[in-house]
């Protein structure tokens, strides 16, 4: 941003000779501007102001000075600074004049010029109470003193104005960003509500399609060709997949829209119950399952149950091709003492080059015929953990299992901490 120059100065003093002295010091010398421009053209440099080159206006009483400041503000050409005499009988003194100036233009820089005062300086400063825009110079003063004060305070005015403009611009950008964020959140809510409504409405026709295809299969028993049965089985399979996708969409929408009901939740109990159900459903499967005790968190019980079930479902599913399944659920201490929960398996794993797809809606890293499912489990986990203020990531290698980590800021610690530790997050691969 280009620095906005303002060389507009006001002198308020009841002595005409003072005005003549200031004019000699601060205004441009006749013909100097032409010499500066010729010099700039000769040496290829920007022309500097002639002498000091200030625009000096005069007022001989405080009332006149205040009127000039008011007019300058209304005209959009405010003064950068004002030299104000302390004693100007019979009108206002310098302190009252400055008080009135600052009511009109709080940004104008002030220099009090006086040989003596009706007030102690401490009283003057206490009464004006603005020392960052106020300097005092005693008469008699020399040329350099006046010149340097003018240069410094007009530059200070310009810097202050620039900082104000930048702050206003930044504040406006923040307001725009906040409004855009609010609009985006509202749009997301509307999209989620729309997805929920559409998914809910599609559930019925798909259920009818599935039911009537089953009835048709019974009617055609013993009378249909292999091709007809194949077509019918494809219809039934597609209806089933469609129903699964709709249920996943409904579940995902509920995660985003549901109100959080925070309480203490025992993840150890949830994990043991769910893994016990797997064992009962597939008793012939050899599996070693380890669940650490006292995995307590503070969160929404229903959502935490859903998140952990999705992680356990994945672990059980993707280790199904192993002759011996290994699943571990536990907690580690992060580098900063943060509780980090994990679900680890010895399944098929995945290439970390594609880890960025893990938590996207309906993203898959394996073929559907190998490991069926709608592919919405991990995005659901990510949203649930995110709603609790945590984060989730994974670590894996193809054919060597996978570990999913997640944090919850309000995790409770019960019992002694686990001895294991994990590397700081910057040393881990994360999607």
Write a structural description.
There is one protein chain. This protein has ten helices and twelve strands. The chain is of the alpha/beta class and 431 residues long. It has three domains: 8-141, 3-Layer(aba) Sandwich (Rossmann fold), CATH 3.40.50.2300; 183-257; 262-427, Heat Shock Protein 90, CATH 3.30.565.10. Strands 2-1-3-4-5 form a five-stranded parallel β-sheet, with helices on both faces. Strands 7-9-10-12-11 form a five-stranded mixed β-sheet. The protein has a two-stranded antiparallel sheet with strand order 6-8.
Strand content: 15-25%
CATH class of the largest domain: Alpha Beta
Task: Estimate percent helicity.
Answer: 40-55%
Radius of gyration: 39 Å
Termini separation (Å)? 39 Å
> How many domains comprise the coordinates?
3
Largest sheet: 5 strands, parallel
Quaternary state, please?
Answer: single chain
Number of helices: 10
CATH topology of the largest domain: Heat Shock Protein 90
What is the SS-derived class?
A: alpha/beta
Overall 3D shape: elongated
Calculate the mean pLDDT score and round it: 80
Q: Based on the structure given, which CATH architecture of the largest domain is correct?
A: 2-Layer Sandwich
Question: Tally of extended strands?
Answer: 12
CATH superfamily of the largest domain, called what? Histidine kinase-like ATPase, C-terminal domain
User: In sequence order, what are the helices and strands, one letter per element?
Assistant: EHHEHEHEHEHHEHEEHEEHEE
Strand order of the largest sheet: 2-1-3-4-5
């Amino acid at each position: 941003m280009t620095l906005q120059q303002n060389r507009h100065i006001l002198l308020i003093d009841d002595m005409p000779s003072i005005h003549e002295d200031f004019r000699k010091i601060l205004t441009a010398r006749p013909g100097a501007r032409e010499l500066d421009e010729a010099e700039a053209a000769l040496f290829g440099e920007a022309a500097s102001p002639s002498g000091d080159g200030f625009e000096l206006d005069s007022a001989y009483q405080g009332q006149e000075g205040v009127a000039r400041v008011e007019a300058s503000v209304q005209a959009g050409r405010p003064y950068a600074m004002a030299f104000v005499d302390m004693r100007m009988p019979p009108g206002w003194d310098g302190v009252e004049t400055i008080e009135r100036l600052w009511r009109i233009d709080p940004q104008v820089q002030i220099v009090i010029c006086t040989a003596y005062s009706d007030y102690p300086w401490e009283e003057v400063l206490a009464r004006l109470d603005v020392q960052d825009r106020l300097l005092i110079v005693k008469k008699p003063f020399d040329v350099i003193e006046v010149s340097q004060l003018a240069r410094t305070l007009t530059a200070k005015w310009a810097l202050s104005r620039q900082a104000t403009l930048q702050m206003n611009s930044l504040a406006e950008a923040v307001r725009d960003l906040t409004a855009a964020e609010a609009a985006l959140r509202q749009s997301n809510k509307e999209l989620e509500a729309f997805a929920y409504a559409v998914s809910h409405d599609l559930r019925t026709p798909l259920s009818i399609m599935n039911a009537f295809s089953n009835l048709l299969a019974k009617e055609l028993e013993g009378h249909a060709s292999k091709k007809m049965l194949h077509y019918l089985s494809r219809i039934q399979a597609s209806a089933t997949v469609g129903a699964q996708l709709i249920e996943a969409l409904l579940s995902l929408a509920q995660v985003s829209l549901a109100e959080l009901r925070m309480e203490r939740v025992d993840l150890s109990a949830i994990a043991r119950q769910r893994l016990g159900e797997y064992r009962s459903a597939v008793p012939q499967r050899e599996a070693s399952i380890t669940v650490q005790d006292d995995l307590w968190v503070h969160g929404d019980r229903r959502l935490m149950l859903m998140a952990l079930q999705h992680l356990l479902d994945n672990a059980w599913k993707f280790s199904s091709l192993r002759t011996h399944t290994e699943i571990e659920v536990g907690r580690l201490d992060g580098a900063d003492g943060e509780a980090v929960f994990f679900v680890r398996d010895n399944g098929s794993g995945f290439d970390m080059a594609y880890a960025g797809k893990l938590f996207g809606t309906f993203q898959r890293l394996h073929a559907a015929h190998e490991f069926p499912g709608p592919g919405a489990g991990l995005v659901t986990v990510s949203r649930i953990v995110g709603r609790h203020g945590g984060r989730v990531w994974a670590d894996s290698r193809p054919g060597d299992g996978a570990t999913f980590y997640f944090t919850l800021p309000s995790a409770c610690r019960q019992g002694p901490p686990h001895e294991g530790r994990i590397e700081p997050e910057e040393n881990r691969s994360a999607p």
